[in-house]
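Dear colleague,

Thank you for sharing your sequence with our group. We've completed the structure prediction you requested, and as agreed, I am returning the results in plain text so they can be pasted directly into your records. Please verify that the sequence below matches your submission; if there's any discrepancy, let me know and we will rerun it promptly.
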Amino acid sequence: MMLLTRYLLRQESMAILLITIVITGAVWFSQSLRLLELVVEGGAPLLVFFEMMLLVLPSFLVPIIPISLFLGLLFIMQKLLQDQEWIVMQGIGLGPFQLARPALLLAAGVMVLHWGISIDLAPSAQRELRFQRRLVQTDYAGALLREGTFNAIGSNMTIYVRERKGSNLFHGILIHDTRDTAKSMTLTAESGFLVSETGPPRLVIQKGTRQERDPQTGKISWLIFDQYIVDLAMLKGAQDDAFIKAYERPMSELFNPPPDADSQNSKHEFLAEAHERIVFPLYNMAFAFVALVVVLGGEFSRRGRPRRYIAGVLIAIALQSLALALANLAAKENMLIPIMYLPPLGLIILGIIWLVRLRGNLQRAPYVN
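Please find the predicted structure tokens below.
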């Protein structure tokens, strides 16, 4: 019996791992394109790019793991059924609980691992990623100033750079600044460079002119300067947003928000986020029971039962969507938090009842050729 359990665990584990790698790789690659531009155009070290890519990985795994578990179990159990290995195992006296035990043990182990990622690893990685992004956006802010194009900085500043050398040296600069609603300002300069050692990045421009237009009188005033400093705190992505989002916070802060006003105003969102981290891993066990019902329920057929498999996949997708929807609703109204637990726990209870009632039905199930 132990040998069969190890065999099933090995088969199911390999399938789940492979599917997880494939799905995560596809999502991971699509997200990496956002960071690749920073490395290529901004001169950020390649090591920073890989560090940031590793930091986004735990957040990808949180929604991917339950679906990967479901697809892996469904694939392996159906393969064993098609190859009649289930029939051989039943022939030597294995019952439903014994056949389902490896899948449930694996689901329980994945669920515990998922809790570790969801509760601790993913938010910790998000906090570190936030710190890394701030460093990159400050130290390599020049990556967002492309040569030969009009770069929109927020909604009220545009910067044109004729030529760019390296990551922070520019020539032929034109800046149109409307941050001050009382007057608009246009600056031209021969050259400039970025300074970002402390605080938000600043663009130091040299040998240029500043034109200010009074909207009431229409008069334009001129200023010729040798050096002028433009604050780029509005640079896209360069704002130092001090407020830490709910998905970045540790569980202790989600249940007991800090006394600052922003945190107190977001405590409903914090509480919903805390329970979401607890609830979501429960879907691993729920999906395991769905896979068992799809494969082991009903009669066996060599031609397969594609409708059952399609229905199982649709159910898993619907459950995943329902989990996200309930989490969003609970963030707005905390009274709905208990409802978040109903789908996974309900499926687990129904799955246990189904497995108990199945008893010897596998041995008596008719064979359809």
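Summary note from our side: DSSP finds eleven helices and eight strands in the chain.

Kind regards,
the structure core
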